[in-house]
Design a protein that fits this description.
Growth Hormone, Chain: A
Length: 408
Amino acid sequence: MSVHSRTFDATQTVGGDGLAKRNALVLACAQALGGASPAIVVSLGGLVGQTLATNKELATLPVSLLNLGLALGTIPAAMLMRRAGRRTGYMVGAGIGVLGGCIAAFGIASANFLTFCLGTLIAGLYGSFVQSYRFGATDAASEAFKPRAISWVMTGGLVAGVIGPQTVIWTRDMIATAPFAGAFVGHASLALLSMMVVSFLRPTPSVSAAGPTSGGRPLREIMSQPRFIVAVVAGLVSYGLMSFLMTAAPLAMIGCGHPVGMAALGIQWHILAMFGPSFFTGRLIGRFGKEAVTAAGLGLIALSAAIGLSGTSVAHFWATLILLGIGWNFGFIGATALVTDCYRPEERTKVQAANDFLVFGSVAIASFSSGKLLNAGGWESVNWLVFPPVLIALALLGWRRRVATVSA
């Protein structure tokens, strides 16, 4: 690590991690509200799509556009936060979330599929700000506290796992003439509350105060590092496969004769499983290492697909979704922690944006293909496609760990 980086880290840890802990708690609360957005869109996007789309193969397009918006928004969000700061950027992001919810609700009320899709795309742009909360929590953190800071923020998703599906259940019939529109009014309301929460975020010491004012190394040089490549692959496989299965699961459940309420509750259990382990994932990383925890997550994702292949009862779907959520938590938090090892403080914004663009670009592709594969080959084919990417990611993690051991 460079002299500049060591100087910066020292300034960040004067007086302990008090500022980092405060900001992590604020961002955890914001995650609880902003994290409800994908739950609402995923629970209802395919169902609304089946109702409004003339071509039923496009039923999952609203969910895919959510993920596309998330990918497209990562770089502009990073540029805004680099110029205006995290707090201003997150408040703008929350305002985008309000807009997305309102447009989606109007699209349902007017029975206009394209307008509804525009709303979910904008909701995805909001998600690009929410996803960076985990990195924002590390800005003032010491190296030892960074994995825990990420985990703290991700625990907010545990509350989101309740808020999102319950918003769907309690508000979906709020507007009698437009079923499900009320849930997107709820989406806008939650984003408005999030705007209030992120206003309490405190700025961290600037990079320029303790280090170089340049942007650091060229992005191409950073991205060519083997450890960055392994971190990105682990992140995109963990998140991409989670989205791939999660997008198809509600439609597959309904196709197997299970009611909408069971599908929504399945997503709720899935999201609880996604974020519940965050209470101890950071400590597991500290004890067993980032690579080991990431590998365990990938293994659980493969196990979830194996259960999905073994039956189509409610219990099978729910077990698949729960294990998928836990696997995502270990895989994605581990991969995020690996990314934080790849950059100097002055490089963090552009590297974080590059990582998220690659990860969520793959997520968008996964969700786009999920609906078509479900229609073409059924739930079984969706599950079989999980195993090859997991094996590739595990092989890369094993290779990276051996290289690191030899170097040490």
